[in-house]
Amino acid sequence: MGAGQISYDVAHLIGATVLMAGLQLLYQRRLFAVINTFAFQALALAAAAGWQAHVQNAPHLYVTAGISLVFKAMIVPVALHWLIEKLGIHRSVETAMSIGWTMMAGVALVALSILLVLPVTANAAALTRESLALAMSVVLIGLLMMITRRNAVTQVVGFMALENGLILAAVSAKGMPLVVEISVAFSVLVAMTLFGIFFFRIRERFDTLDINDVETYRGDRQ
Amino acid sequence: MLIVASLSVLVLLSALAVVAGSREITHRLVHAGCAAASLGLLVAGLTHLGIGPGGSPSIVLPLGLPWMAAHFRLDNLSALFMVVVDLAAVAASIYGIGYCRHLPEVRRVTPFFPLFLFGMNAVLLADDAFMFLVAWEFMSLASWLMVLSDHKSAENRHAAVIYLIMAAFGTFCLLTSFGLMAGAGGTYTFAAMRQAELATIPAFLVVLTAVLGAGSKAGLVPLHVWLPLAHPAAPSHVSALMSGVMTKVALYGLIRILFDLHGDVPWEWGAALMVIGGASAVLGVLYALFQDDLKRLLAYSTVENVGVAVIGLGLGIAFKDAGEPALAALALVGGLYHIVNHSVFKTLLFLAAGAVISATGERRLSGLGGLLNRMPWTGTAALIGAAAISALPPLNGFVSEWLILQALFKGPGLPHWAMKFGVPVVGAMLALAGALAATCFVRAYGIAFLGRPRSLAAARADLHPTPASMRWTMAALALLCILLGAIPVTVTDALSAVVQPMTGLHFAVSADLGWPWLSPVSSTRGSYSGTMLVMVGTALFAIAVVLAHGLGTRRVRRADAWDCGHREDIPETQYTGQSFSQPLRRVFGTSVFLARETVEMPEPGERSPARLSVRMIDPVWVWLYDPIARAVNFIADRVNRMQFLTVRGYLLMMFSTLVFMLLVVAWRQQP
């Protein structure tokens, strides 16, 4: 399988779409836009997994594609939307590093990944090489997003983007065992993180209320 | 067989001391057992030396690391050091039987004392690096625990912390040294290390780390700082072993690596060791000269004597590398002789200091005085020890320093110009150190044992008689000082056999004139016979006594004794330790220690006395250790901030590390 074959070109296109979505995440200024971009990335990932399942003739990858489609492209974005509205989180992205610099860093990371992966995997199949470089860029950009954004929701999105990169790497390599298990485990992890944030915010809010109550009560008795 | 049995006895005694609790009989039994076990080891060492080069028995025990058994071996060098260690150990153990009664925290000492002896002997017998280091740590930690035995005093705790840091540093250096010698193959037996060929840089690092590691334990300047703190903090019989013997075990490690395992050290290292030794000798004795604490004075004097021995070793390396095995053997015999001697008289002096402390409870010279009348045994033994350490003939200290000086006189014959000029300088430093040591011990002995008591405790010293075990030990060691000086040829012949494998030449110091004359270079260049000196001296003394008693008048005359300008009832008018050393403080103190004297005069009409106060700094602390401590604190402060970062901060650190390593990988891949 090499350049010019339809399976290679399509896989390359979908992988590049995942990476583009990753870069797109970096320059969003509003939280809803971030979540929508993430949903798009998850959709692309599901397409990548499905295409690989078809090309590699590996039906278990359809499970990965399904998890990605249902959980990441639908449930998580909806849940995040609901959380933001319910908890009244400030809706603009708070950056720790200006967007221009972040984009440049992201491009530099992509260059680094390509420089790194292509020589190392000189003997591997062409598809694996390209996909690994793409996947590694996605992972690094996810990490970059976790660092350069202050808000907890954007950090969770960054983490999930990182995880998308890992899954992309896993589905692209032929004969990779435990891909399904890995994707399930990561999804559970992300769910736990979301619930963690949710409960943390709730408890924070009620704790504050409780303390206010106590202070008001003492004020009344005087 | 005897050795294995004795070592096992030591370990069992330690267990017994833990189990049997804190009754006085336990402490006495343990110390007596230690004496018996050390005696066994001493006999084994002497037998091995006495039989001569009859091979070196070795034994492999299934101990230690699973893939490597524990190797032990007894050759001439370890036998010599075993004699040195166990001679002092027998003395200290017997002394301990009587002494342990006076110790406030004896139950914190007894369990570790046998372990300490075990560790020192095991270092000498070890034939692989793993056992060597394990035994070395046994020695360090057991002695550390005994330093900490009187842990209620803040000063002792400070000493223990410094000691622990320096011990860890030393072991780390030795570990590096052995690791480099073992090489990539990782065979840690000494037999394999002897065969190994080292490249230039590892060979240099091996010697450097060995000098740092063993030097820090031996107390070479500037790594000596823990020694004057830790040695006095331990109980006196332990101080005696730490100062008299443990420093020698460190020198054994140095000799073992430089002359046996490495075996091919370039002359530059000899020069470096001579400079370090000379600096240790002069600085050590200068420190000692200004001390008021009796035990700390003795500890600083150890720094000096280790320096003297190291001069001998360094000269040996230089001569050996220059292809002069006979002179190398002479220098080494001198160095080893000094090691033997110092272990005897330093043990004796520390034991005497212990007797003084247990009788008076006073360690400061300014609180002692007039003890010779009140403690005649201790006073006489300490006099012999002080004369020996000041290198007065016919005692043992003179012989070894004389031999080293004889070797130094041949130094200008070395081919390198640095050595031609440098050796006489080191010789001058050695001579200066010898003269200052004599001053130092005239001062220590004169202030502590002569004159009038400077405190009530010193005046009442005769109310606490010294136990028999302590008195006899000191007497035996004092006799040994005389004996080792009286039969120098016997000693040098034994040492020549030890030195032979190191230089590859059998060299008899007495070759020219024969027993009992030492003639190291030639019969016309310089010769000495302690034996003749003792015999003639005794004879002259006897004749003088007979003449004085036979010809002198029997009439008794009474007159006032000259009171040296001070009244009997005011001991403050005597010379003090400070005033005795003041001229030397003026000469050396202002430049080396930046000493400043200030006089506070009372206002006219006021009746208070004028006060003279002296402020001195320790240059080693100020210039070397304080900056290191500040740097460590500075870095620790910076690192401490890393505990309080945000999640993003930690992620950033991980991310930058990852990217950095990826960059390194990408860079390494470029063709």
Give the overall pLDDT of chain B as a whole number.
Answer: 87
Order of helices and strands of chain B: HHEEHHHHHHHHHHHHHHHHHHHHEEHH
Please tell me the total number of domains of chain A. Answer: 1
Cα gyration radius of chain B (Å): 27 Å
**Strand order within the widest sheet of chain B?**
1-2
Q: What coarse outline of chain B follows from CA principal-axis ratios? A: globular
State the end-to-end distance of chain B. 63 Å
| Strand and helix order of chain A | HHHHHHH
**What assembly state would you assign to the polypeptide chains in this entry?**
heterodimer
Strand content of chain B: under 5%
Question: Main β-sheet of chain A, in a few words?
Answer: none
Distance N terminus to C terminus of chain A?
83 Å
Individual helix count of chain A? 7
Q: Class by helix and strand content of chain B?
A: mainly alpha
Q: What sort of overall outline of chain A do the alpha carbons produce when their principal axes are compared?
A: globular
Helix proportion of chain A: over 70%
Write the layout of secondary structure elements.
The complex is a heterodimer of chains A (222) and B (671).
Chain A: H1 6-26, H2 31-56, H3 60-87, H4 99-120, H5 126-148, H6 152-172, H7 179-221
Chain B: H1 2-19, H2 24-51, E1 58-61, E2 70-73, H3 76-99, H4 112-125, H5 129-147, H6 154-182, H7 190-195, H8 200-218, H9 227-233, H10 236-262, H11 267-289, H12 294-321, H13 325-360, H14 371-374, H15 376-389, H16 396-409, H17 417-449, H18 456-459, H19 468-486, H20 488-503, H21 530-551, H22 577-592, E3 596-600, E4 611-615, H23 619-641, H24 647-669
Antiparallel strand pairs in B: 1-2, 3-4
Keywords (chain B): Cell membrane, Lyase, Membrane, Oxidoreductase, Transmembrane, Transmembrane helix
Domain NADH:quinone oxidoreductase/Mrp antiporter transmembrane (chain B): 126-410
GO biological process, one term (chain B): ATP synthesis coupled electron transport
